[in-house]
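hiii, so i know i said id send this last week but things got crazy w the move. better late than never?? heres the sequnce for the chain we talked about at the cafe, plus the structure i predicted for it. fair warning i was half asleep when i ran it
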Amino acid sequence: MTALQPSTITFTRELKLQPEFLSFLESIMFQTPKVWLPLAVIACYAIAWASSTDKPNIFLVLIDDQGHNERSSSNPEFRTPTMDKLASEGVILDQMYTQPSCTMSRAALLSGRSPHTMGIENAFDAHDNRSLPLNTKTVAQYLKIRGYQTYMIGKWHLGMCSRSMTPTRRGFDSFSGCLHGNSDHFFKFPQNPWDFWTNETLDRSVRKQYDTEVLTQRAIDVIKKHKESGTDEPMFVYLAYKAIHSPIKVPAYLSNRCSHIKNTLIRDRCGTMAGVDDGIKNITDTLERLGYMDQPLMLMVMSDNGGAAPEGASNWPLRGKKATPFEGGTRVPAFMYSKHCCLILHGLTRV
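okay and structure toks below
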């Protein structure tokens, strides 16, 4: 982790931690690893106390199987200008580690627990009867206790064989997306049962539409609906794109943006990421237009695991790929962005 700069951390309640205290805290945390976690928890409580009168809106974007080198900031062949700009103006999470595959990573992300402690050691298949344990609370359930309205859009992949396993029974006020999600990107489901839902009802209105565009629009609709409701409650939006998971299929207009790449598979991966970047731009433009960017808001964008090498992914310079314990399977691109944050770390741009 990058060392904290000798500057002041300011909370919304004008609580200030002076440089000498920061240096002391840093020396304890990093020279005495055993006390790092308790101090981190204490710091989180301090932040929560300092900002409790103005809860931030939270927008979490999860990209599926993005390789470590599949962004234009590290690979000029790719086209991700929006994510690069937001990352450069926010905090780049350069040491972000996840689980090596879809279900394990999502289980850890939403529960805060190691998936191995919940009996989840591989990805659920389309006919799996397992789920994120029903007695395990999700972050959505905890946030609802704190007064948040919670929305999920996209790929669930944490259990689907009974309604009790699905998002609207696990803390989300609404859900629009796929319960399994590993399927064609144009919602055709040629060999699998139809899998696109609005809450707990099958939704066939999206047939043959491109999933990244559909999920982006559903996220924008949620933001607009939340604004129009006039509620004072903050929102937690979890958007889990199906891109860039195999099979790699993308509309021609996106693939054509990457016509400089000769290899058709890598060209389509580049086009897929360009589509995700467009989606994030449209979402952040909507947040800006509706005034959410001028309120406390945290945006986090990350991949669920490393890229799948047989599908043309690049995790360079890391060793390994998705479904392996090496860094190529577990160290992922990620960043956090906030236009106005309750906790300002001056000079801290990469951790």
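btw The mean pLDDT is 86. thought thatd interest u
miss u guys!!
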